[in-house]
Structures are given as structure tokens and as C-alpha cells.
Specification:
The chain has about 375 residues and is α+β, with helices and mostly antiparallel strands. About 15% of the residues lie in helices and about 30% in strands. Strand 2 and strand 3 form a beta hairpin.
Length: about 375
């Protein structure tokens, strides 16, 4: 076995200052973050979200026809008295079109953030209302999901320079299974936990999954992928019993992509299963984990309650471990990461650093991940 590389997170140069690399601090910006399924953003709706500590209103105009209008995203603060715009309503006034009306004094804002009206003004009170703006966020709908672009410079009006990610295996119509949970964790720790290949036999001990006694050595090939890496398509591990219900000879590929997407694409003959996990940073210390499944496999028609119970159990187990980990992290300890089990954690840290540097230096992103084979026991 090759010798371990130096740990990616080294002891702090000054006690209490934390890792010098900034792990567990800051966010990947100029990136698309998942906020909701498109089906959950109803026409005429206004919903408050939080992204990276910022209040964000997600809404949809009523538009024409049965499908409704366009999704939009605004900073969820009225510039008049700071009331949440999401507490207001969507109205349609002659000459203004559809606007968000603040619940406090009725100020109205178009979906692009431009103020359309201030009802308390009288005719001889000259004021350029359209110079007042609420910050808009770029928003996009793709594959039945809604994504928001979080800019590095909130004052910039530059358009995103790449589209949201496109995931393979979005088949079988609408999403078949969706579960979410908020972890009390910075997104960095949530990502590392998500991509950790060695915790399964300890955290996820289930009769239908695996146990400590089923551990054996594994060797998996990895390759760089768009803004991330992929575990090259392979047969699932023999000690992962849940795959057996799919029948046939399943082949799976597991991919991670910045800023926080992990998906497993399984093919069983002509049938497909996509298990997508989206990590959405709410604050410095909380991250929403959303697990979404698509499939055209018959098993999702007959075994959905069992599958849902399994997903909920996994999320609760991971959430419980996050809470335990936080007991140690609050002392800001140095962390020791080893090869090969923690290699993906190191890759994430390198990817995040390269993303931030490439944006700051206005140059193309260079993926630091190289093709390799990793070995560990689980």
C-alpha cells in the first residue's frame, strides 16, 4: 500500500484559528445552488428561502395558461422598512404587469426587482420610483428543478457564465421520491460526510444494507469530471444488499460536482435509477440535504414505502453523526485525513480552492483531480 500523503488539514498555526486552508469556512460562489423542485414553486406563490445567510424570495408569476409563468428570485427584504417581501402577495395592476406587493405599505416590485409603484405618493411628489430596486438573483429551471446563482459580488449584474448541471438518468417522469433534512453543519463538512466511503458499516448498520462484519477491501477507479470527479461505472459492492432488489446486473457510477451535488446513476439493462443529493448552504452552520430519486424501474412502483423508509433512516443516521461531530468541532481541532479513504475529502478541498482562485484571477478552472484507483475497507 502506498504511503499516506500529508493530511489535507494541518494543525492551526495559532491555537483557535482553525485550519489555514479555510475548510469549514466560506462558500463556493458564482455557482448554481438547488433551491426547490419546480413542481413546488406554484404560480402566484412567494416562498422565503435562505442561502448562505441571505434571505431569498422564490416566486412564480401566474402567466397565461395552466402551467403558470416564470420563476423569479429576489432578496427577501423590502428596501422601505425591511419587511419580508415573501409575506406579501403577487398582484396584477394595469400598466404594471405582475408585481410583488409588500405587506407593510404596498410597495410593488417587478420580478426583475425594479420598483413599479409606491402607493403612498401623491401626484405632486416627484420621485423616480423605478430607480429603487430589490436585488434580483439569476434563476434557472432545469430537469424539473429550480436553481439560483449566488454571485461572488452581490452588486454585480453579470449573467452566469455556465448553465446549471445536467444529470443523467432523469427518467420515468416526475421525481419518484424526495426527502430532505437540515444538518447543523457547514456545507464543507456535509460534503465530506457525503463522499466518505468508510463510515457506512458504522453509521449505517442495517440488516438490509451492510454491517461491520461484512467489511472487505475495495478498489475503485476514479476520473475527473465537470467541476468534480466520478467513481467510474462498476458493479455495486457485494455487501450492499439493497441493490439486489433491482435484479439483473446493476452497474453504477457515482459523481460529485461543485458546489455540492452527488449523484449515483444506476443502469439495470434498459432501466435506470438516479439518486441525486443536493447540498444547499443555508448559513455558516446549517445545510439542507435534499435526496431525489428518478427511475423507470418497476421497483419504485411496488417498494416505494420501503425505499422511503431507507432514505429517511440514512438521513437521520447522518444527521445524528453530524451532531456528535459538532461536539468535537466546536473546539476547532486539527483534523487528520488519510489515504485512500479520505482522498475524496482532499479533492473537494482542492476543487474549492481552485474554484475560488480561478474566479478571483479571471481564468479558466483547472480540475486538480487526476485518474487514479483508490483502496479502502468498508
Amino acid at each position: 500500500m502506498k504511503p499516506a500523503e500529508p493530511a489535507a488539514v494541518q494543525p492551526s498555526p495559532t491555537p483557535g484559528k482553525g485550519p489555514p486552508t479555510g475548510f469549514g469556512r466560506g462558500f463556493v460562489r458564482d455557482a448554481w445552488y438547488f433551491v426547490a423542485l419546480a413542481r413546488d414553486v406554484a404560480p402566484g406563490s412567494l416562498t422565503r428561502h435562505e442561502l448562505m445567510g441571505e434571505p431569498v424570495l422564490i416566486g412564480r408569476t401566474r402567466g397565461a395558461g395552466s402551467k403558470g409563468g416564470q420563476a423569479f428570485a429576489l432578496r427577501d427584504i423590502c428596501p422601505h422598512r425591511a419587511a419580508p417581501l415573501s409575506a406579501g402577495r403577487l398582484v396584477d395592476k394595469p400598466g404594471e404587469g405582475e408585481t410583488v406587493e409588500c405587506c407593510y405599505h404596498g410597495w410593488r416590485f417587478r420580478p426583475d426587482g425594479v420598483c413599479a409603484a409606491i402607493p403612498s405618493l401623491v401626484e405632486d411628489q416627484a420621485m423616480e420610483v423605478d430607480r429603487i430596486r430589490v436585488r434580483p438573483y439569476p434563476i434557472a429551471e432545469s430537469q424539473g428543478m429550480v436553481f439560483v446563482w449566488m454571485r461572488a459580488d452581490p452588486r454585480s449584474d453579470a449573467e452566469p457564465d455556465h448553465p446549471p448541471p445536467v444529470f443523467p438518468g432523469v427518467v420515468g417522469g416526475d421525481a419518484r421520491l424526495v426527502e430532505s433534512m437540515v444538518f447543523d453543519s457547514h456545507i464543507d463538512h456535509a460534503v465530506v460526510g457525503l463522499m466518505d466511503p468508510a463510515h457506512g458499516p458504522y453509521v449505517h448498520q442495517q440488516w438490509w444494507w451492510r454491517s461491520e462484519h461484512s467489511m472487505h477491501e475495495k478498489a475503485k477507479a476514479f476520473a475527473p469530471a465537470d467541476f468534480g470527479w466520478a467513481m467510474v461505472r462498476h458493479a455495486p459492492s457485494s455487501n450492499s444488499r439493497a441493490y439486489r432488489i433491482l435484479g439483473g446486473a446493476p452497474a453504477t457510477e457515482i459523481t460529485f460536482r461543485l458546489p455540492g451535488y452527488r449523484w449515483e446513476h444506476i443502469q439495470v439493462g434498459e432501466r435506470q435509477v438516479l439518486a441525486l443529493t443536493c447540498l444547499t448552504p443555508l448559513t455558516d452552520a446549517s445545510t439542507r440535504i435534499t435526496q431525489i430519486f428518478w427511475s423507470d424501474h418497476w421497483v419504485f412502483g411496488v417498494a416505494k414505502p420501503f425505499l422511503r423508509a431507507g432514505v429517511v433512516a440514512f438521513l437521520k443516521q447522518d444527521g445524528g453523526m453530524v451532531n456528535l461531530q459538532n461536539e468535537g468541532l466546536r473546539y476547532d481541532p486539527a483534523l487528520i485525513w488519510i489515504d485512500d479513504a479520505d482522498k475524496q475529502a482532499k479533492w473537494y478541498q482542492q476543487l474549492k480552492r481552485e474554484w475560488i482562485n480561478s474566479r478571483a484571477e479571471d481564468r479558466p478552472f483547472v480540475n486538480p483531480v487526476k485518474p487514479t484507483t483508490l483502496r479502502w475497507k468498508s
